Amino acid sequence: MMKWIDKTIGLALGGGGARGLAHVGVLRVFEEEAIPIGVLVGTSAGALVGGAYAGGVAIDEFIEKTDNYLNSDEFQSSAIKAIEDAHSQNEVGLTQKIQTYLMNRFYLAQAMFRPGILSSKDFQSMIDYFIPDIQIEETRVPFRAVATDLMRGEQVVFSSGPLRQAVMASCAVPGAIEPLNSGDMCLSDGGIICLVPSSVARKEGADIVIAVAVDPDICTADEFHTSREVHDRAMEIMSHQLEHYALREADIIIRPDVGNLHWSDFSRAQDLIEEGEKAARDKLEDIRHAMPVKKNWFTLKQLLKGNRKEL
């Protein structure tokens, strides 16, 4: 970072599964506006998007990878796709309903005897596809990934070691993806404790914390007829309150409009990216006011744009 910028901007990307694709749009705006990121912290989906970006994957390349992966046979036949179909509101065909019913009974049976519907081996291939095989210390932007140690019930912040392993641990959604064993730790989704890692960004030296929250709208007109629906709703409320607490550490909050999209619903990938861009642009004035050297904004913007390939 330039010496005459005396404050560090920390960008905290929250968890939210498919909704985390909105982070891609936010990062695109930060790049276009040459907003200098001093430290990038991600939880769950935020760790995936943030880790790829910090590791050197360009925005357009990430979008292309996402499109290719979502249309691949690997994803279409995956447990995550089955979970998405189960929550889809667009199932109108009897055959599709029967297939979804049977697949979900299959995955439910697996869940009774395994720590996750999707094994760590299967999930690893997806992580490897998006995340470069480098150490966290080698990222072009200082990066941190947040996970949860199920053994101690504590937050774990990865600041060194393999980038892929850190992202994989942070993204291990409880019940859906098998936890990652590392030494005496059993690592799972960072969102269990820290849905939006604003406090981590602050602890890592950020003077100005910009948080991106991709939680769904908490208000709903739905009725709850089954125990699963009541359970899912309870989890949504708990997550909302946990996020509200985490956002107290943020100076600026960016909230892309993700509606009530389920974490497994990747059908609106492009829309989510666009919502991220829109929400980030709506906050540009606040970000500019928070910049420590306003008079040099234009010079800084042009300087960083000219040297983007070197960052």
Strand content: 5-15%
Q: What fraction, in percent, of the residue positions are helical?
A: 40-55%
Outline: globular
Number of helices: 13
Name the structural class.
alpha/beta
**Overall average residue pLDDT:** 81
Radius of gyration: 19 Å
Note the main sheet: 8 strands, mixed
Order of helices and strands: EHEHHHHHEHEEHEEEHEHEHHH
* Alpha carbon gap, first and last residue: 10 Å
Low-confidence stretches: 89-103, 105-109, 294-298
- What's the number of extended β-strand segments? 10
How is this structure best summarized?
The protein is an alpha/beta fold and 311 residues long.
Structure in words:
With 311 residues, the chain is α/β, with parallel strands linked by helices. Helix content is 45%, strand content 14%. The chain is built from 13 helices and 10 strands. The protein has helices at residues 22-32, 45-54, 59-70, 73-76, 79-87, 94-111, 120-130, 163-170, 198-203, 227-246, 269-282, 284-290, 297-306, and strands spanning 9-13, 39-43, 116-118, 143-149, 154-158, 175-177, 180-182, 185-189, 208-212, 252-254. Strand 9, helix 10 and strand 10 (252-254) form a beta-alpha-beta unit. The longest helix has 20 residues, at 227-246. The protein is globular, with a radius of gyration of 19 Å. It starts with 8 loop residues before the first strand and ends in a 5-residue tail after the last helix. Mean pLDDT is 81; it is low at 89-103, 105-109 and 294-298.
